[in-house]
Design brief:
41% of the residues lie in helices and 18% in strands. By secondary structure, the protein is an alpha/beta fold. The protein has a 7-stranded mixed β-sheet, with helices on both faces. The longest helix has 15 residues, at 253-267. It is globular. The protein starts with a strand and ends in a 7-residue tail after the last helix.
């Protein structure tokens, strides 16, 4: 039995989800004639209290579309230096939108209102790029699943309003933050110009993200999605999985968080672990003591049928998810506690 903890994207549809997919009513979504896609978009927009939504093949495409909507070539956006839009979207910010990034070193991927204020270029100083957008990520991927407090989100919004900046949220794992912080989606919908949410991470759908915004922005987003090559036909089979996930898989995210927290607790007791980042949701990031090669350690775990990933720079990542059951969890905890590493046991 292989236990894959590389990401929460490795899940497979549940039996109920597969049934919903196979029973979906479909049409041609390029002509906006797929009833299930339309239903998903209306549902997500309603959940966040926003006007409209658009279904995308990936979170990267949804984020890149939002940036394209909210900026002009030559502009600059502000984000944390861990931001997914900068580190893991293939340079799309510059390639697709001609925009540069002002990167801030925040706390585990989270920036503050004062940091944003300090990094806005003077709009009348034409030698520097024009700051037009602030992008947050919640939860933070490279920051170990850390969550923003709503007070800080609102404080950054206030800075954006004062300076005429747009506000985007990369909410790939926003569902995890909502559960961990006991927040409501409409709190986010009332603040951001655009929000992207993923259905294929913690919620367990096989494919898909949704961009939420105003009707005007979403109408423009349809054109941008087309330019990016994202038009899909009978996408209702995928949208049905997303609807099922929204109806059945949000509350259970607390189980993933509990297991991640238990992994954190155990890892902190082990002599071969140098540091464990604070765990808030379903991501555990840790580093090994000097002298232990990450690749060798990952191979040791692989021999025990446990797969994890490396973030580089001596950081390893474990992500708990829908397919990571309690019996697997107990096995992983036992393996970690009994793992023999020469010089550290």
């Amino acid at each position: 039995m292989e236990i894959n903890l590389i990401s929460d994207t490795v899940t497979r549809p549940t039996e109920g989800m597969m049934k919903a997919m196979m029973q979906a009513k479909v049409g041609d979504d390029v002509f906006k004639q797929d009833p299930t896609v339309n239903e998903l978009e209306e549902l997500v927009a309603e959940v966040f209290g926003m006007e409209a939504a658009l279904f995308f093949p990936s979170g990267t495409m949804a984020n890149q579309t939002a940036i394209k909507l909210l900026t002009q070539p030559g502009d600059e956006l502000i984000a944390d230096h861990y931001a997914h839009i900068y580190n893991y979207e293939g340079g799309g910010v510059s390639f697709n939108s001609g925009v540069s990034c002002r990167l801030i070193t925040g706390d585990r991927g989270k920036i503050t209102a004062s940091q944003v204020e300090a990094n806005i270029n003077p709009p009348d100083f034409y030698h520097s790029p024009l700051t037009t957008l602030v992008s947050l990520e919640n939860t933070t991927n490279k920051g170990g699943g850390a969550c923003y407090d709503m007070d800080e989100i609102l404080a950054i919004k206030n800075v954006c309003d004062q300076h005429g900046l747009k506000y985007h949220l990369d909410g790939a794992r926003l569902w995890n933050a909502l559960i961990a912080k006991n927040q409501h989606p409409k709190q986010y919908g009332a603040v951001f110009d655009t929000i992207s949410v993923c259905l294929s991470k913690g919620l367990g759908a096989p494919v898909g993200s949704v961009l939420i915004s105003s009707k005007e922005n979403i109408q423009k987003a349809i054109r941008v999605r087309k330019i990016f090559g994202g038009g899909m036909r009978q996408a209702g089979y995928l949208a049905a999985a997303g609807i099922y996930a929204l109806e059945h898989h949000i509350e259970r995210l607390s189980e993933d968080h509990r297991r991640a927290k238990e992994l954190e607790t155990v890892l902190k007791t082990l002599p071969w672990v140098a540091k464990v980042e604070p765990v808030e949701t379903n991501i555990v990031i840790f580093s090994l003591q000097q002298g232990i090669e990450d690749a060798n350690f990952m191979q040791l775990l692989k021999q025990k049928n446990i797969l994890i990933s490396s973030l580089g720079k001596s950081k390893l990542r474990i992500v708990t998810h829908l397919d990571y059951k309690q019996v697997m969890h107990e096995y992983v905890l036992e393996v970690m506690q009994k793992l023999e590493i020469p010089g550290f046991n």
